Amino acid sequence: MDHSEVSAESSPAMEAYPVSCLRTDPELAGTPPMKTSTKTRLLLPFLLLGISTGLSCSQKTSDRNLQLVSPAEAINLASKGEGGIFSTDSKVAWVDPRSPKLFDEAHIPNSINIYFGTGEFEDMATLELKGRGPIIVYGTDYQDVLSIAASKRLIELKIGDVYTLRGGLLQWAKDGNEIAGSDPGSIGK
Question: Of 150, 159, 167, which Cα lies nearest the Cα of 61?
């Protein structure tokens, strides 16, 4: 039987398909579209969901990803690195994400000021921290959101092992550790 002579109304196979699903290729005119198996119809939504989820989701870093350390633990981590704890050639990186003004007033000796408030944080961090570790990020006190945000961003960048100093400079000073800067006594005021 010639398929071009069969109309959608006269073919029993065609009755299961709406006319809009008929193929428009002249060579295939009158043939029904390919049927999909039940298994394919069940798996297809999950496959599409998996693809769309994988493409649309970016990595999210939560507080659970942070490695909080006390000043004593931070010093212990730093002492395991090459060079002295605060030497300029040390592999350890003490990172202060606060503004340059706050950094100039008070900071941990030989720390690096990579201000989180600029759009250049990622580039500066990559440049300054590549090949260094551990990376210890600190802020002003326990509630310093910059140190937490900067730590999370460094974790996402996968630059190295990132630790966050619990209590920031305030706890650092309370524990009797050295503070450098133009006004070291400004911490906690």
Answer: 150
- For the chain, the 3-state helix, strand and coil shares in percent, each to the nearest 5, are 45, 10, 50
- Cβ-Cβ contacts under 8 Å for 154 (sequence gap 6 or more): 95, 125, 129, 135, 137, 160, 162
H or E segment and range at residue 71: helix 71-79
Q: What is the mean pLDDT of each run of 10 residues along the chain (189 residues)?
A: 48 51 58 62 54 49 80 89 55 93 95 91 92 92 91 91 94 94 82
Domain ranges across the chain = 3-56, 63-186
d(CA 172, CA 178): 8
C-alpha span between 111 and 96 (Å, rounded): 7
User: In the prediction, which pLDDT does 7 show?
Assistant: 47
User: Do 100 and 93 form a contact (C-beta atoms < 8 A)?
Assistant: no
Backbone angles phi, psi at 159, to 5 degrees: -80, -35
Q: At residue 31, what are phi and psi to the nearest 5 degrees?
A: -90, 140
Predicted TM-score (pTM) of the model is 0.65
Structural fold of domain 63-186: Oxidized Rhodanese; domain 1 (3.40.250)
- 29 by Cβ neighbours in 10 Å (0-12 / 13-18 / 19+) ranks as middle
For CA atoms 10, 11, 14, 20, the dihedral sign is negative
